[in-house]
Amino acid sequence: MHNSRLSNFIRRFSPARSSAWKWLYVGIGVKRWLVVLIIGITILSLGAAYLLVELYREQPFPDFVYYLTLQFLPRPVRAILFAAFGITLVAFALYKVNQALLAGVPTRPTSLVENLYRKRMRQRGLKIVCIGGGTGMSTLLRGLKNYSDNLTAIITVADDGGSSGKLRAELGVLPPGDFRQCIAALADSEPLMARLLEYRFPSDSGLGGHAFGNLFIAAMAGVTGNSEHALLESSRVLAVRGRILPSTLENVTLCAEVRGSRESQIARVMGESQIAKFGQPVERVYLEPENVPAYPGATRALLDADLIVLGPGSLYTSVLPNLLVEDLCAAVSVSPALKLFVANVATEHGETDGYAIEDYLQALQTHCSGLQVDGVLINNNTSGKLPPHAQIEFVKARAADGTYAFADVVDEERAWRHDSEKLARAVLRWYTQQNKKNISRRTARQTNSDAQRKQGSREQITS
């Protein structure tokens, strides 16, 4: 069902199709009321016809009425002409009412049906849970929100750098930076609102370095009493499509064991913002305190999902900190949803230098025991130029694997990042193909099972 819904959603919105016909699409919720309107007009017309016939039979009329009512024509012809004229008047009236109601709305009247249909389809979209944080997560959400309103973003709360770190230390709130980016990505608002949330005050001012969105969320926490309600109310005020949830409400610190200058030397780094700065290969990351409870809403979302997407984002500081919450790791592992790992376009200096796809998957297995992904989405467009000073390279696979899916998901202007729309379409395309394979496998198993039962029945009858 999800497969046909997704393909219909994409196919029906090609520019070649007329907007007028979209009123007849299944699921838009308008045709039923048009039928009720037509039935009502028909009943009203019958009542008026009974009255007119009664008057016509008992009251004398001037001669011009004979011509006005077209009595010189056969009755079937008169019926067709009057019906056509009535339908024309009704259609014209509805059109003018539609224009009058939308006169003060910025959306063009011709796009009303398209917007309405898109909203209906998004409400019935896949239940997708995305795990990560940072720019990668907001990029993915910005693309997926055009296809489903049933989105859940589970965000790490271990950020301790920059504006988020200051607000976390001074006000005791959850670090708002990653939440701000996701709210800006999912907000159903004008682009100006997203720019406002991302605006950073000049460094020479009293609010230097702070993003307006961070201050907004921190202020909302003060108004509502805690960070949990602040996220809920911020999402409501800004008309966010979907939900943005923390992995845990506990005050956690991300720590790492990194390889020292000597091969056998292991150094301990505390704080998410310090891991990449250390500049040495990461052996493992962990939380302090370790056994923290997961946010209940996040666990429920994972168990109820159709699709779980891990990444994109910084492996050790965005994706894995969520999976270090044991309950979340367990929920991802046992969830019946399809699980897709979205690989970064390029490595990150100081964190994943020289990593191939296999290294990312090994890190996932090491930190979340029992986790098995159904697929890995890898960018195959490596023609872009990477900044030479960044010391990064495109992420590639060392060997072929049946779970690997390749697609062009790169941003044309920034070759080291994903493109929102390309990435969303690639994720949904993978889900559709994988779901078809699963359906085919189930059908084949059912056919084999039925054949075995029939064979057994024949053998019993023969014996």
Name of the CATH homologous superfamily of the largest domain: CofD-like domains
- Which geometry do the CA atoms define? extended
This entry's quaternary arrangement is single chain
Rg computed from alpha carbons, rounded to a whole number of angstroms: 30 Å
Number of helices: 17
Number of strands: 10
The CATH first-level class of the largest domain comes to: Alpha Beta
User: What is the strand arrangement across the widest sheet?
Assistant: 3-2-1-7-8-9-10
- Biggest pleated sheet: 7 strands, parallel
Structural class: alpha/beta
Work out the helicity level: 40-55%
Parts with pLDDT < 50 across at least 5 consecutive residues: 12-18
**End-to-end gap:** 44 Å
Q: What is the overall pLDDT average?
A: 85
> Which architecture of the largest domain per CATH?
3-Layer(aba) Sandwich
CATH fold name of the largest domain: Rossmann fold
